[in-house]
Design a protein that fits this description.
Layout: H1 3-8, E1 12-13, E2 26-35, E3 40-50, E4 54-60, H2 72-78, E5 83-86, E6 100-102, E7 105-108, E8 118-123, E9 126-131, E10 143-147, E11 150-153, E12 156-157, E13 170-174, E14 179-185, H3 191-199, E15 211-215, E16 223-225, E17 234-236, E18 244-250
Antiparallel strand pairs: 1-2, 2-3, 3-14, 4-18, 5-16, 5-18, 6-7, 6-10, 8-9, 8-10, 11-12, 11-15, 13-14, 13-15, 16-17
């Protein structure tokens, strides 16, 4: 069996695949995928959006353990974000790990730690997800997180991802054609499993994932989606305070 054929059956949708209008600029979905080889399942909260209608917003919550807002929902609503997840990694003293830009202000500097393999950022031209070595800094960047590791590149799971330490995960992914998704898993899985799941066609997204990158996960994992007037938002609260958030706001 070819490598591409093997990848295609690593993870599949659990039950009948949910119909989704991929032309919509904003949509929420809760999807479950299963690995046929052993029956393992993963469920994820997903916020799908397009770069033509939305931009990224990084919210810095400050260098202290006391939360700046009582809930994740309150934090994102204060920024006018319709959806979001927890953001990048941070040190025990609450200093961010890697370059962080919030509202055009540089909160922390660029770092070369192995885990910080990529950067997700938003500027006047759109949303970008690039390898650390290909990043070109410029003053028009409004929101940026340096994070990692990369999970998927060119439609394939990245080699060498950890196959141990299963935990809840947070990520952002794109088909590199204007479709994006931010997601948080409600179940635990390894980085290797997440990369395989995202690269398996139709398992978690209705379009082919071209590239994806990991955000801070584990006890930091959080998710928010505003479903509009008269409907309760979708929320997954982190188990502990976090340093920053990655949200999406209308352009």
């Amino acid at each position: 069996m070819s490598v591409s054929s093997a990848l295609a059956v690593d993870w599949i949708p659990a039950g009948e695949s949910e119909r989704q209008d991929i032309s919509a600029d904003l949509a929420y979905s809760k999807r479950t995928a299963v690995r046929p080889s052993d029956g393992k399942r993963v469920t994820a909260h997903l916020a799908f959006f397009t770069s033509r209608a939305f931009r990224l917003e990084v919210t810095d919550l400050g260098g202290r353990p006391e939360p700046a807002h009582p809930t994740l929902e309150a934090a994102f609503r204060a920024e006018g974000c319709v959806a979001g997840v927890n953001g990048g990694f941070f040190h025990p003293d609450w200093q961010p790990l890697g370059l962080v830009i919030s509202k055009g202000q540089r909160i922390h500097h660029f770092e070369t730690a192995k885990i910080l393999s990529g950067l997700i950022y938003s500027d006047d031209r759109g949303i970008h997800l690039v390898r650390r070595g290909r990043f070109q800094d410029h003053p028009q960047i409004r929101a940026l997180l340096q994070t990692g590791p990369f999970l998927v590149e060119h439609g394939r799971p990245v080699r060498g991802l950890s196959a141990s330490d299963p935990r809840r995960r947070t990520f952002i992914a794109t088909d590199w054609r204007g479709h994006w998704v931010i997601g948080a898993t409600a179940s635990s899985l390894t980085l290797a499993e997440l990369g395989e799941g995202l690269a398996s066609p139709g398992a978690l997204t209705p379009w082919r994932v071209d590239r994806a990158i990991n955000l801070d996960g584990g006890s930091s994992t959080g998710f928010f989606f505003d479903r509009g007037p008269g409907r309760a938002p979708v929320t997954l609260e982190p188990w502990k305070p976090v340093r920053n958030l990655l949200g999406i706001c209308a352009r």
